[in-house]
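Morning - phosphoric acid mono(formamide)ester inputs below, output right after.
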Amino acid sequence: MGFKHKDIIALQDLTRDEIQLLLDTAENMREVNSRDIKKVPTLRGKTIINLFYEASTRTRTSFEIAGKRLSADTVNISTSTSSTTKGETLLDTALNLLAMKPDIIVMRHAISGSHYFLAKRLPCSIINAGDGAHEHPSQGLLDMLTMRQEFGTLEGLKVAIVGDITHSRVARSNIHGLTRMGASIFLSGPPTMVPPGIERLGNVTVCNDMRDAIADADVVMMLRIQLERQGKTLLPTLKEYSRYYGLNPDNLKLAKKDAMVMHPGPINRGVEMSSYVVDGDQSHILKQVENGVAVRMAMLYHVSGGELPT
Ligand code: CP
């Protein structure tokens, strides 16, 4: 089957087959990334603009590397050095960039829904690199790829997601993607950080006690507390948070033996996870980052059409 979308904005918008296709293509891209010469001509002549209105290390760098490995011309725009600082609107910025004929705009923006706004108005492809607390589809896909490599399937997995669910676009993309692929999700976090009614998104259970969420889990995914998105204090102290919602070698024993430990980064060491766990044998955090390049190559490839690399 082909990929019929001009844009990739949310995993909620994709079918099971489309997610499967993106993951399978990412495996092909991993093979390219293992070569001595990690470059194929697939997107030669295409122009990709990476437009980031929020800070990023992993996502921005890996989208740039992904575009370059596919031979596209990539341009990075950081809004701190762009005319956004002079008051230019998102739409004006996008229309001016469009005048330079990009094929794909990869954007990160603090406002949920800003990508849908642009996708309706621009003929080029829009890829969401994170919008507010809505979705972060490339992160969800790279997380699923990392789990699938470990277990061979996503069907039937128990995935615990712990932390600041309310502000987490990573949690939402994983919930939509993983439940569509047959996994069950167990969420836990301080009551102020778990949105009421989130169970309605699918096969989702909310546990007040983190230990219930991680008990017998195949995967334990920890989230960062997004202090920058909180308009008010949602926590008494970070020490208390760490005590009740932090992952350490003791409570990790509640999960299945050899359960995968994941985190999208950046990590607050000693808050949501102890360094023993971050750097321990069960940690797949750097594998997630590695898979991020392949997944983003697959996303760029599928919104562009083109031939798979040989
Ligand atoms: N996981 C993630 O989105 O990391 P960055 O903010 O560094 O891109």
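Note: Residues 56-59, 130, 139, 264-266 surround phosphoric acid mono(formamide)ester (CB under 6 Å).

O.
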